[in-house]
Amino acid sequence: MYTLNLPSYDAKIRKKGNSLEIFDPLRRKYLVLTPEEWVRQHFVHYLIAEKDYPASLIANEASLKLNNLTRRCDTVVYNRQLEPVMILEYKEQQVTITQDVFDQVARYNSVLRVKHIVVSNGMQHYCYRLNFDDLSYEFLTEIPEYKEL
Asked: Which architecture does CATH list for 13-148?
């Protein structure tokens, strides 16, 4: 695929028919290797390997109900009580992160009500922390370690 602004890792990739697949260790299966999936797998690996996020508390493609429709968050991180604490939304490298992307994840957060949100296209990463008491937010200079959530 292509180089990201994330640590590389030895991804398990196989060819199936005319397409490539990448192994998702969280879902324990191979998935079609799309540019967005490339970003997701690298970012999740980064969270686990560099930021000490427990793999058992991370879910890819987590379902939620929004206005009677089922939606999927790209990744949700949970605390040890299995409450959601972070939503991550990924775009492929060529997609510019716009207000629409932040609006999308804000809609998901109207259901999950997490304090930390991350948006990434693999090259640019944005992380912010919400304060529900005064409805403010603060952009963070780096992704917090798991113990800081």
From this structure: Alpha-Beta Complex (3.90)
